[in-house]
User: Which sequence fits this backbone?
């Protein structure tokens, strides 16, 4: 099967040019001006952008959490991703406490097998480090898993102490694994939570109060210090605020190998959303919590100056009804997590590129190229180049679309951007050379998505 | 007993003026131009500065540490202080692990009773927090103790976890106690120490390597975050480096109540001293370790812009012979600590004021006024003002003196500033109106020094 | 005439205590607990604060500007000041272009003579530097004028070039004069203004657009660099924004002698006020312009961490009717300036102290002590101390007052804080020992205010 | 002519891989594993790196300056470049004061014509802006010149005032030209120079004293502010110090389009070199001057965190004998400028990559890819990719070489790195597919170098 995409503007992180793109089998076979190779299908991309498929490096499909399970699984979540122009994601396999890591990877394979429509990888989230697990780390690359995640929050559940985090980073450095951290101070948060609950403060808005930006900033600085001392590369997931960004910026200015991502919820919603009446605030409950407009402004500075390398989603959807509602009487019982995998590239294009804050090239870099580079997928993914995987999106920069839970494809009963009319949407989406979505119709094949073994990682961008 | 000091320039933190000072009994009775009150003694202070006696808020006299005891006790240490123009200090009473705090205070009173020649107070260093100790905190003000110290380093010895530190700060805030922290990450340091020893790296220079500035910077930022979240005031002891100062500066710029001190060793010696041959480096072993010239430059910036509030000594002397030598084969066995209480005001005057980096007023502020203000001693001490304690130093800005272990009064066999010729020395020193030192002779009375109950503390400068 | 103020809490910058204050003639004769000296009048200050009179170092009374004259003169302006608890101000004598500086000082004396009710001093604003003026600088101290102001904006009117500013600072340093700067880039502003007018953008909101914060930040950084290079002290008037504050902070962190003030308009109003409909925005037109909420937050950080040393007003009132209205068709014709001298201490107390952002001591420091220290008036003014001028305010921290143009004493037809109910107001105000205001009634004597010769200035706080 | 480079590791800014590279005519025809295309020559690159040829965007060949002419012309300078692995440079055509820009470009073409051995472009340095020149700017792209340079120093010679700089940036933005600035405050420098000379301070070391880092920092911040206000992209040439880098970093963190370069002299020499005895300091005289070790450390942080985008040379060589010596009695008469085009890539590789401060990919990015991207040459140059120009260097990472004026190819009688043994040197160099240098022998053809018309520039990296 050969597909020739003609007349579009190919947008890569390092530049744009008018060029035709030939997909042949699973790969991009040719990128050149005025290609006339015979093809099974020729697509007219005039006036369109041709971009590498989006990569979302932070998702939680089919995740048991707080007595319920996140509402998108590998079937619904990946299809929603495809509708949004995202053709690859990395999900977090969560270690079953104290058990071998391999079991988590096996379990996550079971979750994905037969359901996948796009390519995917796994991070390994450590929930209990011990000597046996430390020894097992070296076996992960063979399983295609080259990134870990450790939690500095969720005390007595996932949280690791500083010695464990530091020793794990040193081991990861030697093996070629990238350490990701959830950077919030779990000790402080627990004290604050207890105090708020004791005062009868149970509304969703107190979720935000219980997790002040200082708790994130210090943990971010702490992890960055560990990266500095160990020489290990570090990736800070879901960075939300000016003060944490300052810590990243200071560390990078001293040559520390630290990269960070933010997520759409931190760019476009605020703590005022957490205070919405009628328990609507619960729709915005995630950790770290959404912050302020001043934080949003700071994050945009990070997106342009390079201190924020990626925009991912932390997609972990829970229905408002029956799921978010579990916390009606106690904000700590609201499942933490938000939907977003379908919206990510559109809202970032709309506010960023249409809104003149980001060049199209930087948008591609944040959504696809840097995620691929950082997580051992580049240049197989994240760029329109010969030999790369045929993950290609024809993007219509002029088309408008109104985001709504009524029409989105995520398996969740609300949308953070309900009613937002965005300009700039995916028209046609290919995964590994196969047509996946066209004109709002799913054309892919369930089960065709592939697990991708990722390369070793020794540095960040 | 009345003493009239005539013709000098009175230097306070808030300004200088030509004025005469009358001491009457324990207090300053009058400060005015051309005083002609009859007095038992009249001192000609022409060409001299008349300053409030120095206050050193960080000393460790008679401290058991690492199988030995610090070589200066309340007798030798206070006399040395007096020779250097310091007439008050605050020593750290160390909780006997898990025991009531009162026992430590009692013990420290025993150490001081009968030996004291200058006034003094106690901080309470917490080594093991528990519910009983938490409850005991509220009793400290009645004992005259209004500052705590907690350790973020020395794991399994003094180190407290984040929950303990945070909860203690909240309690301290409510009571009116100031929380001091030793800010270094104990977890990371222990891992590094073990690694260095395993590699056979046992020289003093590795003491510095085992305690990188990043470990201090992150702990400083962490404690500052706790101050921000709790609203409790915080005092960072012995800050050594640019990166930790950055953390203090960022927090203060956001309105956090955090003050910090540095010490002469961090202003005037570097890691190159730790690398001196023939085990001489051991003479410079203290924690956090001495750093680099770039750090020194940053600290001077902090002294002038106000982000460093005090210069104290962390005086904890050990003889090179028999004491420092305990670590000849293993740097971890070198007792941590340096002498300095006698030299502090002279070296800071010499490099700072004579060297045109500090005004005389700022020097007084750093050495006496801010220490008094922050630690609940002001305006009783730290200023030349009517009603204040008669702790007064006649300082000769023109006189030169060569610092040397041969002539110093500290009970230790070396001096960090051996051979340094300083310009600017104390001529006459009064404590509570009593003559203490004159022309290099001790004139005081052993046992006359007083324990000072300090005021509650709710903020920092 | 002796007045004894009993039972109040004396609040100075360096601490508060319960004490009685005896005024005798023009001075404070005694400050002590339980004074029972006979007095002509005894005031019960129970429950009140007793503070040094406010000092506003930035006023423009009787100032010709843009074809009109500022509406408050030394009579109305000083009386309004007194009602607000301010008992001293420094007005800007403006050099008549190219003429000897002495002429400006003479002219300003004429403006004040016979009208003054409180004490005052003059800065000298340079509008055209030349060799003759440069030579005249050394004569200023004898005239009691020890501070200059130079403009980096208002091209072709007041603006000086970099060589002139730098050379003036070097001369000022040698003489003992403090250089104040209006820090905005006049070149850029003029280009923007021309562009906006050419586009027909004439509303008040474009006043703000024509003077971006970057233009202030760079000029602030430039002046600070000149201070660094020359070693001259620098005072930045009316600092408005986070980016300019960053420049001050960076310079101070490197030991540069730079201090800065902000004004109430920058703490409590924003560019949204400039956009008020019906030309109401003109009421907020001053230069630099009012900014954003994020800038306000940053300024509060500067007030607490010490990088902002003073809060002054830049009081330069113009009536909305007939004066501000001159610019109905062209924002450049709106007279620049706002009223505030009466409100300053109340709004800062209300939002700051009542609002828990500032301690009462810091409020006094910002409003009186630092202004006195920086501008050569301390310890004569700015503190409640024996020998100081009898400028004393009995402040009622519990009393509420609604600010309104209907009731204020400034000669201007609107108030920036119209309708604001503040908590904390002056009850009784003394100037040089004379009763000035009591219970909202003016009790002073027109003409009794004195011109104060100020001391030489070599440094800033 | 086809050349096949086999077995090497292709290092691009975005990643490295083992691959063969086929040059065909002027271009890179193929990059792939295990290429077996027939070729005229096959090169064994085992153990070698294959990198894009270096691009030096800051050179001054054949430049009249201070009564003499820089000693390297387009013949000697380009050949020296080639020996160092640099295959493209951009020289500054200097406007003849007040004359049409076209004349400068014509003149620079004359300098290069017939001499060139590598490709090159021109910037246009404005020395006198007027309306006619402003109108001429729009014609530059057709001449292949898409970057300007303006001087904030060299008063009365090259320096432009702020209005001119700002208006030029606005015009440049509209046309698609990148504005480069020499950022030092010319006013201040002239005052300091006059003062030093008046004091009889004429040695080379005073060159440094006359140009303090603050003068560079403020000008850098000023230009960045203009970029922020205008939205124009900015490129700061030869940034030297921590304080200027701070200004760049702060601006970028707020989304300003500013990039900066540093040069080897600022990374590897200091003001102590300026103080070398026997007038040897003159060998290090360039503007801005070389700084301190602390500045060097800061610059390395900028190279790793991305705030410094390029390393160029500012190559402007003058012989010590007869040229530098012109200033024996007066440092202002020492021709400003240093040699370096031959050494740049080697010293940066040696200290950076061999010294573990930079990855090989980042080294390529700093020396070739970013220069190409920023200056409108990418992807034609700056990357090993199909279709790109055949500017390719086979780099031997293991080979050692001792740098010396005795053996270098620059036409200058000294070398900044005399005696330095570097590890990592170019083995074989191709320009546009032609062999240029091999095993230390020049194999190219004089006159074969091409002037490259560059693309419009709207942003920086």
Assistant:
């Amino acid at each position: 099967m050969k597909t020739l995409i003609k007349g579009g503007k190919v947008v890569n992180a390092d530049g744009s040019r008018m060029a035709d793109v030939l997909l042949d089998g699973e790969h991009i076979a040719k990128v050149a001006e005025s290609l006339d190779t015979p093809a099974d299908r020729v697509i007219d991309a005039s006036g369109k952008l041709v971009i590498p498929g989006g990569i979302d490096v932070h998702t939680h499909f089919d995740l048991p959490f707080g007595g319920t399970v996140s509402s998108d699984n590998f079937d619904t979540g990946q299809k929603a991703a495809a509708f949004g122009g995202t053709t690859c994601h990395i999900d977090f396999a969560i270690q079953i406490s104290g058990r071998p890591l391999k079991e988590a990877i096996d379990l996550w394979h079971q979750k994905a097998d037969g359901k996948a429509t796009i390519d995917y990888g796994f991070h390994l989230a450590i929930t209990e480090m011990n000597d046996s697990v430390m020894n097992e780390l070296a076996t992960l690359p063979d399983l295609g898993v080259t990134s870990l995640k450790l939690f500095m929050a969720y005390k007595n559940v996932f949280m690791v102490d500083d010695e464990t985090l530091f020793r794990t980073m040193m081991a990861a450095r030697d093996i070629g694994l990238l350490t990701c951290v959830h950077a919030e101070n779990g000790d402080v948060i627990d004290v604050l939570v207890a105090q708020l609950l004791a005062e009868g403060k149970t509304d969703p808005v107190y979720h935000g109060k219980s997790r002040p930006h200082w708790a994130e900033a210090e943990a971010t600085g702490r992890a960055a210090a560990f990266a500095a001392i160990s020489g290990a590369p570090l990736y800070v997931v879901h960075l939300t605020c000016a003060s944490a960004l300052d810590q990243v910026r200071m560390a990078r200015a001293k040559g520390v190998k630290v990269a960070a991502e933010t997520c759409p919820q931190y760019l476009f919603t605020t703590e005022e959303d957490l205070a919405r009446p009628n328990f609507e605030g619960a729709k915005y409950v995630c950790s770290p919590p959404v912050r302020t407009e001043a934080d949003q402004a700071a994050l945009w500075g990070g997106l342009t100056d390079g201190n924020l390398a990626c925009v991912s989603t932390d997609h972990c959807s829970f229905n408002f009804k029956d799921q978010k509602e579990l916390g009606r009487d106690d904000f700590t019982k609201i499942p933490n997590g938000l939907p977003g995998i379908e919206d990510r590239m559109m809202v970032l294009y709309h506010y960023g590129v249409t809104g003149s804050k980001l060049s199209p090239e930087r948008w591609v870099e944040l959504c696809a190229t840097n995620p691929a580079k950082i997580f051992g997928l580049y240049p197989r993914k994240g760029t329109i180049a010969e030999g790369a995987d045929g993950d290609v999106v024809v993007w219509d920069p002029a088309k408008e679309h109104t985001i709504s839970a009524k029409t989105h494809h995520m398996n969740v009963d609300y949308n953070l951007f309900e009613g937002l009319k965005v300009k700039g949407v995916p028209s046609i989406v290919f995964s590994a050379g196969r047509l996946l979505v066209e004109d709002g119709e799913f054309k892919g094949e369930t089960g065709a998505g592939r697990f991708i073994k990722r390369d070793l990682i020794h540095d960040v961008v």
Remarks:
- Residues 213-230 of chain D form the longest helix (18 residues).
- DSSP finds 13 helices and 21 strands in chain D.
- Chain D has a mean pLDDT of 97.
- The interface with chain B takes residues 293-294, 297 of chain D (CB under 8 Å).
